[in-house]
Amino acid sequence: MLEIVNLKAGYRGVPALQGVTLEVHKGEIVGIIGSNGAGKSTLIRAISGLIKPTEGTITFKGIRIDTLPSHEIVRLGIIQVPEGRHLFGKQTVEENLKLGAYLIKDEKKIKDHLEHVYSIFPILKERKKQRAETLSGGQQQMLAIGRGLMSNPELLIVDECSLGVAPIVVEEIFRILKTINAQGTTIMLVEQKVHEALELAHRAYVLQTGRVVMHGTGEELLKSELVQKAYLGI
Amino acid sequence: MFIQLVVSGLLLGCIYSLISMGLSLIWGVMGIVNFAHGAFVMLAMYAAYYGDQLLRIDPLLFTPVAILLLFFLGVLVYQIIIQYVVDGPYVSRLLATFGLGFFLINMAQFLWSPNFRTIKESMVHGVWKIGSVMIELPKLASSLGSILVAALVFLFIRKTRTGQAIQAISADKMGAALMGINLKRIAAFSFGLGIACAGAAGSLLATFYYIFPDVASLFGLIALVAVALGGFGSVEGAFLGALILGLVETLGGYYVDPNWKYALMFLIYLGIVLIRPQGLLGRGKV
Ligand SMILES: Nc1ncnc2c1ncn2[C@@H]1O[C@H](COP(=O)(O)OP(=O)(O)O)[C@@H](O)[C@H]1O
Ligand SMILES: [Mg+2]
């Protein structure tokens, strides 16, 4: 469904990705793991069109997307829940969610999606009139994911959703991601919490200084010496 | 006398509010301080003037036309200038709108001469006396018109899908882009809307204010001070800041010295900025 070939990108001439090749198939949960500064966020910023790659191609459902602006990429069905959440703090929970369905014109559909998101995250329904900035870290992360689901994306990319969230809530969020995936949404899971991510992911890629140094099934990677040494401290 | 001055100040402040709201909106969405804002007020005043002279349409009734004209002018200016400097360095953003304002004022002097003009008599005229307080009806009509337009813009931003997108961009550009909001399109629209506010105010002002090219500098500065006073990015703050400026103008003009009223406005501005740099309402909701 998503194919990335020899992708290079950087910031003001300083490279952050040095030729990344990977693919995501429909229905999968694909993990992208690596330590801080490895280039994970840069990779998905390029997928979402927030930065333009200097080399390589990104193809989604057979369409080249690396030249498209962000809103066109969203229209094709790729939604990113960014690191740091990037919520609209002064707007209410429900307004945030409705903005997630910005490209949907059909009011009925928006309502259905809203009910769906509320059924996944009941706490958001309770807090729907509250400003987003008044929520706790975990609730904000749920709102960010819920907002991402409002357009019913085909590919949901979640960047470091465990950051600043209590461990018990992280568990809950991961469980919910599994359910969302079972309902048909393909997921790219970007994480520094390597162990948890590899347990959830069907397959995963290990990124180091802008390169894929290893990939395989979650299980394979959990057993591999490289992952155990570098990320699990075993 | 005091009540009289307060009333006059508030009436004036309402019109300043509308101008400032547009400036604040533009700043919130694209991080641009529109130094040409007053020039658009001035253009709308001339448009209303010629509407009155040539077409015999009263400036009050001309207001919707001015809103439309200035909206499209704003979108056009965004397309040919602003979009190219929006992501550029601070200096180029500053110079672009500053230069545009300068150009428009000089163009107006060239086309229409620097002389003062006035509309002979607007459809609403005369004075309304309540006790010892005199309310000039043209000013009252313009203020009410300004409040109406400002309220409509406010409702639009709060209640419509496009308005929600405008708020979203002001709050978090990247978040907005990731929701599929076309940043350029909404920015163009917001610039148009901000300029339309200036346009509405210009047309409403034309009923009683002197019309001359340099009026642009005056209103541009007032709006800038009002927005800084209220807090950049807060439309409510801009509103409040503008009301305060209206009061300072009339009260200061009377109790201090008419020649000093603008100096006084900026003095108060400096005071507030030194004590509370984020403005009165900080960075509130758009
Ligand atoms: N906005 C930015 N400007 C300049 N350099 C950046 C920016 N974002 C990230 N980088 C650099 O790019 C590299 C990869 O960063 P990033 O993709 O954020 O890594 P990760 O998400 O894996 O932690 C790092 O060296 C980082 O310092
Ligand atoms: Mg990151």
Describe the structure.
The complex is a heterodimer of chains A (234) and B (286). Chain A is an alpha/beta fold and 234 residues long. Chain A folds into 2 domains: 1-77 and 153-234, P-loop containing nucleotide triphosphate hydrolases (Rossmann fold, 3-Layer(aba) Sandwich), CATH 3.40.50.300; 86-152, no CATH class. In chain A, 39% of the residues lie in helices and 26% in strands. Chain A contains 10 helices and 10 strands. Chain A has helices at 40-47, 70-76, 93-100, 107-120, 122-126, 137-149, 167-182, 194-200, 218-223, 225-232, and strands spanning 2-11, 14-24, 29-33, 55-60, 63-64, 78-81, 155-159, 186-191, 203-208, 211-217. In chain A, the strands form 2 sheets. In chain A, strands 6-7-8-3-9-10 form a 6-stranded mixed sheet, sandwiched between helices. In chain A, strands 2-1-4-5 form a 4-stranded antiparallel sheet, covered by helices on one side. Chain A is globular, with a radius of gyration of 17 Å. With 286 residues, chain B is mainly alpha-helical. Chain B has a domain at 25-217. In chain B, 74% of the residues lie in helices and 3% in strands. Chain B has a two-stranded antiparallel ribbon. In chain B, helix 2 runs parallel beside helix 4 (90-112). Chain B is globular. Classes of the chains: A alpha/beta (234), B mainly alpha (286). At the A-B interface, helix 2 and helix 3 of A face helix 6 and helix 7 of B. Residues 40-41, 83, 159-160 of chain A line the site of magnesium ion (MG). Adenosine-5'-diphosphate binds at residues 11, 16, 34, 36-42 of chain A.
